[in-house]
């Protein structure tokens, strides 16, 4: 598995964590301690804020999981990919976007710039 795909797998393990204990470990495995995530709705820095942001999405979309849509692409210390937020019950995907990750030397994420391509209107 490529360095980029591995980082994206760890990233989604955090977003899809099913419990608080798993989330704590997954965020630590995916991001450096002072890593950040920024999209049009969220600006989180550090593991505590990252976990809080992920918890907020989990509460807003119970029963949904993030999945890669297409291929992960990367060069140097940067990866990009598209994703969908998919209902486990019916396969619908009301939210989709594209993210760009910057990787630290150890392969964990130092930063994420997220773009929302499709969001619910109501």
Radius of gyration based on Cα positions = 13 Å
Instruction: Assign the CATH architecture.
Output: Roll
**Ranges with pLDDT <50 over ≥5 residues?**
none
Sum up the overall morphology in one term.
globular
Strand content range? 35-45%
Fraction in helix: 25-40%
Q: Which fold name fills CATH's third level, the topology?
A: Nuclear Transport Factor 2, Chain: A
Q: What is the overall pLDDT average?
A: 96
Helix count, DSSP H or I runs of 4 or more residues: 3
Largest sheet descriptor: 6 strands, mixed
Order of adjacent strands in the largest pleated sheet: 2-1-6-5-4-3
CATH class group: Alpha Beta
Topology pattern, helix = H, strand = E: HHEEHEEEE
Total strands: 6
What's the N-to-C terminus distance?
39 Å
Structural class: alpha+beta
What is the total number of structural domains? 1
Write up what this structure looks like.
With 122 residues, the protein is of the alpha+beta class. 32% of the residues lie in helices and 43% in strands. It has three helices and six strands, in the order H-H-E-E-H-E-E-E-E. A six-stranded mixed sheet has the order 2-1-6-5-4-3. The model has no long low-confidence stretch (mean pLDDT 96). It comes from Nocardia callitridis. InterPro entries: NTF2-like_dom_sf (IPR032710), SnoaL-like (IPR037401). This is Nuclear transport factor 2 family protein.
């Amino acid at each position: 598995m490529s360095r980029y795909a591995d980082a994206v797998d760890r990233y989604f393990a955090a977003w899809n964590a099913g419990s608080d204990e798993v989330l704590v470990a997954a965020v630590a495995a995916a991001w450096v301690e002072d890593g950040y995530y920024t999209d049009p709705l969220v600006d989180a820095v550090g593991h505590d804020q990252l976990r809080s942001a992920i918890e907020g999405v989990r509460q807003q979309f119970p029963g949904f999981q993030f999945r890669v849509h297409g291929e992960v692409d990367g060069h140097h210390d940067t990866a990009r990919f598209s994703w969908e937020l998919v209902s486990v019950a019916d396969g619908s995907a009301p939210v989709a976007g594209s993210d760009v990750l910057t990787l630290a030397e150890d392969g964990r994420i130092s930063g994420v710039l997220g773009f929302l391509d499709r969001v619910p209107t109501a």
